User: What shape does this take?
Amino acid sequence: MTTKPQLKVVDGKAADTPAAIDVSDFNVWCCDAHILNNVSAQFPARGITCIVGPSGSGKSTLIRSINRINDEVPGFIHKGAIRFDGRDIFTDYKDLTTLRTEIGMVFQKPCVFPKSIAENVLFGLRAGRKLSTADRLMIVEENLRAVSLWKEVSKRLDESATSLSGGQQQRLCIARTLAVKPKILLLDEPTASVDPVSGRAIEELLLELKKDYTILLVTHDLAQCRRIADHIVFMCDGEMIEQGSRQAMLEAPVHEKTARYLNNSFCDC
Assistant: This one.
């Protein structure tokens, strides 16, 4: 029987909830470039963890490693461990489909398939059990309601997903991810390519989803981080500099680099 790792003390701060994802001394090289350098971070179960830092600090590389998308990148080499539910994702998960079902990911640009809206929601279930028409409709409605999209598209389910606006497409991508019942949601700047109104709608959606999901969100938008983060991880130059609760990180960061970046959006690394 495996036990979930507890959050470690980082710079004198410790969370009071167990870690859903535990990253330990994790390194990544790609084509001889050292992208992540001995990163250790613990992501609390439930709630929203915002991963922030300047461009090129390794934020996207980190979350793409968590569901092993980087495995497919030529020249990718890793060292160290990432544990989910107490299991090392590189040694204990032989079936990547299982891992990616439990750890879903949404990218910066909406990635809808050239299929109907309904088929996009059901896409991740296509290789699973056979579903009746009633079951299919129930799953589609349940997940479109979860992302506050049902009222907008309920009469358009057979239309192409490409007919939706950018913000609607991004919410559809989240609905497609939710349909397979993941435990973790990874989001890489999900509001960066949508308009401000759609961005706020996605933020409100994440605030609802955090009650049931562990959410890891890469963002360059520090105002967004202040609005929705429960926990903040600050990365710089491929290293994890500091992590803690939103209040601790914003009001009393330990490192000068953290304070400079969170207050002034500037880092000299």
